[in-house]
Amino acid sequence: MTELTVAGRRETPPSMVERMTLILDAFNGPSARLTLEDVARRTRLPRSTAHRILDQLVRQRWLSHHSYGYGLGQRALGLGGRDGGHGKIREAAAPLLHELQVTTGLVAHLAVLDGAEVFYLDKLGGRLATSVPSRVGGRAPAHSTALGKAMLAWLEPEQVDALLGSEIARMTSRTIGELGTLHQELHRIRQRRGLAFERGESFPGIACVAAAIRGAEGPVAGISLVGDVRAPLENVAPLVVTAAREASQVLFPGSAPSRPDGRSARGGPQWTVRPNGSAGPPRR
Where in the chain is the domain with CATH 3.30.450.40? Predict the structure, then answer.
């Protein structure tokens, strides 16, 4: 926005629209998270003015507000008012993504399955964010991402076939390119109780670990951590599993996650994720 000056001094924009635009422009990307102090400093608006306008933008869903600050909301991200429940998913996962990112220093993602693709609802990253070629509102083939595979693993094989079709494209030389091989990988993910990995399958040099957020009817979203191929993803995998489980509990309190055979997982063996990233029943 063009700066308004009088005799070399910056003046407060005269209209509410200009002030709102100034605040929205302060968010320099879909994953930006700003405190009230950050917004007041970047816009040079009085703190009380910034706070009043922020409240209005939150009410109109141009911004979202969580305990750790403000971020772009559904309207600013092009999700509109009818988001198919995405707003609830983002709200449930937001503090968990923030904790994952701060704890690990890696890039945290939240996505949903949309046909044969994943649709990114949120992205939080530190210094690595610009090196990860994903964006809020963007898409990627589900079979080439850990997020997508984590969600596909909890669908019936026939559902996977219907979503992906008979041919799946390779994004890199490491992408799974045959449906049969993908089903084998989805079986391994289920054996790990939903923990999915990928290294260089979507983009060269990028690695990811993910787990699905699930309810009684199946997967509704996925949470992941992303870094370069040297990142120790096995070490952080238990954190991803825990975050996905906690988000599931927030969204579906008292509901047991589904299994691929359609039966409730309640009462089944209690598996644990070990420090090396493997999963299985507790050792006796």
Answer: 86-280
Provide the CB-side half-sphere exposure for 7 (13 A, CA). 0
CATH of 86-280, one of 3.30.450.20, 3.90.550.10, 3.30.950.10, 3.30.450.40: 3.30.450.40
Pairing of strands 107-114, 218-228: antiparallel
Q: Can you list the alpha helix ranges (DSSP code H) found in the chain?
A: 16-25, 36-43, 47-59, 86-104, 146-152, 157-164, 179-191, 233-251
Which CATH class, in words, describes the domain spanning 5-72? Answer: mainly alpha
Give DSSP secondary structure letters for 138-200: -EEEGGGSHHHHHHHTTS-HHHHHHHH-S----SSTTS---HHHHHHHHHHHHHTTT-EEEES
Kindly report the number of other CB atoms within 10 A of residue 254's CB atom.
6
Query: pLDDT-derived band of residue 109, with 50, 70 and 90 as boundaries?
Result: very high
**pTM greater than the 0.70 cutoff:** no
In the chain, CATH 1.10.10.10 sits at: 5-72
Residue 79 has pLDDT above 60, yes or no: no
Burial 193-216 (b: 16+ CB within 10 A, else e): bbbbbbbbbbbeebbbbbbbbbee
The count of other CB atoms within 10 Å of the CB of residue 162 is: 12
